[in-house]
Amino acid sequence: MSVNDQLKSLLGLLAMLTLWPHPVAATDPLRTALVVNGDAIDSLTIANHYAALRAIPDLGIIVLDDVPDTPSCDVEQFRRQILRPLIEELDRRGLGRQTDLIAYSAGFPTAIDIRSDLDQVTERDRWFTPVASLNGLTTLYQLVLAENPGYASPAANHYARRDTKALLANPFLGSDRGEWQQALADAEAGRFDAAITAGQALLKKHPAQWPLLLRIAEWLAQADRSEDAIKALKRLADARVIDRDRLQPDEVWESLAALPEYVQLLDQLPALLPARMPPVAFSARTTYATNGLPLGDADQGIRHLLSIVLAVTHGRGTTVDEAIAILRRAVSADARGESAEFFFSDSDDVRSTTRKPLVPLAAEILRSLGHQVTIDPARLPRDRDRLMGAMLGSANYDWPAAGNTILPGGIVENLTSTSGVLHRDNAQTPMTELLLAGAAGTSGTVTEPYALPFKFPTPLLYPYYAAGCTLAEAFHLAVESPYQLLIVGDPLCRPFGDKQSETFSLRLTEDDESVRIRVEFWRGPRVAAQRVQQYEVFLDGKLVHVVPPVAQITIPHQEIPPGEHELRIAAVSRHPLRMKTIESVRLTGRSEVAVPTLEWTLRPAAESSGRPEIVATVSTPTKPATDREESSAEPADQEATDADTEPPPKDATSTAGGNRRVAIRHLGRRIVESDGDAATFTIPISRTGTGPVRVTPERFQGGSWILGKPVTIDVPSD
Questions:
Q1: What is the DSSP code (8-state) at residue 81?
Q2: What is the per-residue pLDDT across 602-654, written as a single tens digit (0 to 9) for each?
Q3: pLDDT tens sequence across 393-414
Q4: Are 132 and 448 a contacting pair, CB within 8 Å?
Q5: Helix H or strand E segment including 141
Q6: Which residues contact 99 (CB under 8 A, 6 or more apart)?
Q7: DSSP annotation of 58
């Protein structure tokens, strides 16, 4: 197969997305949950920086209290103190179906003891080692919450792109598994009509499961229903999901062999499609079958969450300053899209040989995309000056001595036994050495995994990345059993794919009835109509509308609550990977209700308790009270849980009392609160961390909280 044919075949398979019932949109800051340990200043500080770097809205930042204060914990602690509170908080905020990505800040256990779950498997192979990673278990959250040890199975990640041979296996996990098995049994016994009827019912329920249609076509042909069989095969050919090799063995299609339509169809098909499925945009709302394709019923498959750790600052991790520098460099890589070099170690070490089978395919695709590929017996590249990717295989190495330069956004990856063991001392080189060298992301296992291909990213990690996937998508597409894999870096880094997005600006006007947002594309509306599939409209981080690419979006005033708000519009491209461009405008809801303001000063460490403190005053402009305000009942906090609402600090001063309150929000939760229309708060840095601390004033009145304009305070680390 030629290089061009290989590329066209792999990327052409993306057309199967047209069979999906609902196109998904790629992961982005508005579909990211930034998860923070509220008791760890490292976690708060890194979250401050990442929220600013990636414009993560406050609604998408979740601060957890009572996180285990050790670098490792057991699986029950993980469920009780991290995973379950996280999922419940996403649901409480209405983000359960919006969030695709969980990005953990520092301050969380990275290694999870899962022996209590694995004990349910009385006979298991030795490679079911009983330590899992923080992000691996989060990706497999449904199985973990159900205490189902299947999360440690070889193909637990159904989003991962598997060998295409797996496509024809029974794809269902629920009751439809038996239905399909019975259809297969009926066909085997020659009861083709029964098999076809059952298969068509399942295909109607799960329209993206094209392998069902292929089986139905086989049964139609064997039942001498040639015309219907040809129609089914044409549907598959038009979707470019089958090749001539799929139409084997010949005896299955014997009744069609002499038909001109069949001969013509064979001539149009590629001889052989690649051995791996193509990359697809991730969606947490998609239920994936065991064959990696979407299902139409959530009870028949599994849903996942992408999950990556931004930084590890305990044990063999980095310092906070190093972690921030790594993330900042990764962000600078976005949309660079330059030609680069990718290196694959071809040594005889098992760490290299484990992943060799897919290196030729990865290399061909990368070269077809315009990149240089080096496959070398050396375990480490040397004196390379534009590495975007490197797949190593060495237990120990001296990266600085190799003299390489990693481009911003690069992924450097090493298969070893314990490079992800950061929670305790270990003899092998830690994965963090590659981050310190300039990589935007890397991975390593948190315990001895054994040299099993499904536990590590395949070489196709790099073609997925170069095709335009985010770093988080590329990793999760490439590893079938991620339960022990610790992935650290910037999950939203996307150096490639910018050519598929359309740049635009927003112009806001309003009248007495509504706010109008005009979307103006730099290359004009005609190009935009051809290349943009839809707009996603977010208000304060919450998805409120999905609309076609019209020139103007109109929002009635009654849909905009009182107070200050940020409106973001994401233009989703028609490209199968659904790249986006996001722009924002600020607006104020029309209301007689006064909007709170915030003024602040920074009390230096020398004048406080050894660390800087924020002294912030929330006040309310004087406005005549409305009837609604005067008659409002005793307020009830409708947003925050008991955990994120604290009594006013001792030095808070209130100018009024009764049924009004003022508060300050930071990282998605209310950190201080007081009765009245104004108050001054002293906020210790232990509550906010350092860096760009974004705080928002709030005022409770008339039964709801009114947001003021956010303020960013640059808090030094000392």
A1: I
A2: 998 767 667 889 999 999 987 544 433 333 333 333 333 333 434 333 333 33
A3: 899 999 999 999 999 999 999 9
A4: no
A5: helix 141-145
A6: 31, 32, 33, 60, 90, 284, 305
A7: G
